[in-house]
Write a structure and sequence with these properties.
Chain lengths: 246, 336
């Protein structure tokens, strides 16, 4: 635990005039896994999307810095190239663009001069796909087009492994996964965790049985109302959120 | 049969000629039949083709010095059509049997090109036309296809070249079990005008057709897609669908997408749709979050949108060739 990758200070965020995030502060360092839990509509996904730079959200006050650089100075693609990754809750489909082509372009863009040769890329890709139990036929399909929920999440994790980020934001990556797929996805997260900061957004404890968080934060109505260790997820599973609202 | 000079000039109220009137696509003055150079076909044997009572077909017939025939039987052929000179034209007969692929590439710097194709499909034919003509050329292309019993015709067009293009494709599903799957991708840039008219006729029952046209509209380009889908009386059990989509990339670009349906049978499935929209910002954001700049992300979405027109084409050879040509074309455009 040491190097700070994400620092959020008293963040307020609005969408079309409605304040969704109402003062959040959070610091994530390399090697730390943070989990954010909360009811639907608490602002969890908004937080992840704001950090990644989704244009629909307006930061009304507060600051976010990524590896020491204020985020307002960085375009979305610059954040990605600097090592930020968001696993989307609902990844967009890009009809007509083959997965293989997309992955190659993405890796080239993010790694720049250090991008692997075509041969090394294929080798690397093959290894990651095997670790995620993904069939080679995935590569010729169109990005997320006609994919099942589980296939979309595996593709998100495959991208994460290839891009090897220093900050991984995972927005409900566990939703729609069966038990075997959940384990495969969790293995992927664990493999990057030692050298990255991870922010997991989830509703359920089941992912946290495979990926051990260092911190669990509970979000209610746009604020973090409680922070604890991994045991807090168990408490939430048992007691729900009502006891934190008083 | 009356031939070209006697055929009346079609009015603009005619569906086919609404957006690219005959006067505009004719290379000189409408009453003239100018001399034309030959299209150079990379293969084919000489043949004769009958005249037509339809004005564009008759005109091409009248000025063409060359008519070639290609016979395919379980084979793949890439056919180059080289078009040069002030005015250039030719006719082609295609007879296909077994499982065949035919890829035609139109290239050259002709000022005006006329191409007429007549095809008969027996078995399974995957057919593609790639328009790679010079960016100031004009193209008039007319095709008539007959699809025989239990036969499948896949046709694809990648329209990327030429300045003023008028294409008129007619497919007759004339026997039970015949099927057509079509995909047209049109890339609009600069002041390019690209007009596709597709008529599909289900003459008998238990015939299937699907057509997808995708046009990207940038600069002050004008894309036109008109379709006429006819399911004839008694053609019960037919299944037909047409979709026209336009991707709007510029406020000055124009796009028309007009599918029309004429159903004279009772027990059929028939659907059509048209949509025009700019790039989906969620797609842009997704690709940006993977490190692609706005320009790189937009280009990839455009490429995908055009390739997606061929989603029903099952021939890998045809789809791979189209993808390669599209990538070359887009790269050339980007590099000026």
């Amino acid at each position: 635990m040491g190097d700070e990758v994400l620092s959020i200070n008293d963040l307020h965020v609005s969408v079309e005039g409605n304040e969704i995030i109402k003062g959040i502060s959070l610091t994530i360092s390399v090697g730390e896994i943070h989990a954010i839990m909360g009811r639907n509509g608490a602002g969890k996904s908004t937080l992840a999307n704001v950090v990644m730079g989704h244009p629909s959200y307006e930061i009304t006050s507060g600051t976010i810095s990524f590896r020491g650089t204020p985020l307002e100075e960085m375009e979305v693609f610059e954040r990605a190239r600097a090592g930020m990754f968001l696993s989307f809750q609902y990844p967009s489909s890009i009809p007509g663009v083959q997965v293989g082509t997309f992955l190659r372009k993405s890796v080239s863009a993010v790694r720049g001069e250090n991008a692997p040769s075509a041969r090394d890329f294929r080798k690397e890709l093959k290894g990651h796909m095997e670790s995620l139990d993904m069939d080679r036929s995935f590569l010729s399909r169109y990005v997320n087009d006609g994919f099942s929920g589980g296939e979309k999440k595996r593709l998100e994790i495959l991208q994460m492994l290839l891009l090897n980020p220093c900050l991984a934001l995972l927005d409900e990556t566990d939703s729609g996964l069966d038990i075997d797929a959940l384990r495969v996805v969790a293995d992927g997260i664990n493999s990057i965790a030692p050298e990255a900061g991870c922010l997991l957004i989830t509703h359920y404890q089941r992912l946290l049985e495979h990926v051990k968080p260092d911190f669990v934060h509970v979000m209610i109505d746009g604020k973090i109302v409680k922070t604890g260790g991994a045991e807090l997820a168990g408490d939430l599973e048992a007691k729900g959120y009502d006891w934190l609202e008083a | 049969m009356i031939n070209y000079p006697q055929i009346s000039i079609p009015p603009r109220s005619d569906h086919l000629w609404r957006y690219t009137p005959w006067k505009r696509i004719h290379p000189t003055k409408v009453e003239e039949m100018p001399e034309a150079d030959e299209i150079k076909f990379s293969s084919g044997i000489d043949t004769k083709i009958e005249d037509s009572s339809e004005i564009a077909r008759s005109f091409i017939h009248s000025i063409s010095q060359t008519s070639k025939k290609i016979s395919l039987d379980n084979e793949t052929l890439e056919l180059d059509l080289r078009c040069s000179g002030h005015i250039c034209s030719g006719q082609l007969v295609i007879e296909s049997s077994g499982k065949s692929n035919l890829i035609i590439r139109l290239s050259g710097d002709a000022g005006w090109t006329g191409l007429r194709i007549l095809g008969i499909v027996d078995g399974s034919l995957s057919f593609a036309v790639i328009n790679d003509l010079a960016s100031d050329g004009h193209l008039l292309r007319c095709e008539d296809w007959i699809v025989n019993r239990e036969s499948t015709f896949e046709f694809a067009t990648l329209s990327a070249g030429g300045f003023l293009n008028k294409t008129d494709i007619r497919v007759d599903l004339e026997a039970t079990g015949s099927e057509m799957r079509g995909g047209i991708a049109s890339n609009g840039y600069g002041s390019r005008h690209d007009d596709h008219h597709i008529e599909i006729q289900h003459s008998v029952g238990h015939t299937n057709s699907s057509l997808v046209m995708h046009a990207t509209c940038d600069g002050s380009s004008h894309s036109v897609g008109t379709g006429l889908l006819t399911i004839c009386e008694g053609a019960d059990g037919s299944d037909a669908g047409q979709v026209f989509r336009n991707l709007l990339l510029s406020e000055k670009a124009r796009a028309e997408a007009i599918p029309e349906l004429e159903v004279l049978a009772d027990d059929v499935k028939a659907a059509h749709g048209a949509a025009s929209a700019p790039i989906n910002p969620e797609q842009l954001h997704y690709l940006s979050s993977r490190g692609l700049s706005y320009q790189e992300a937009s280009s990839l979405i455009v490429e995908g949108f055009l390739m997606d027109a061929f989603r029903h084409i099952k021939s890998e050879k045809v789809v791979d060739t189209l993808r390669t040509r599209l990538l070359v074309h887009l790269e050339c455009l980007m590099n000026g």
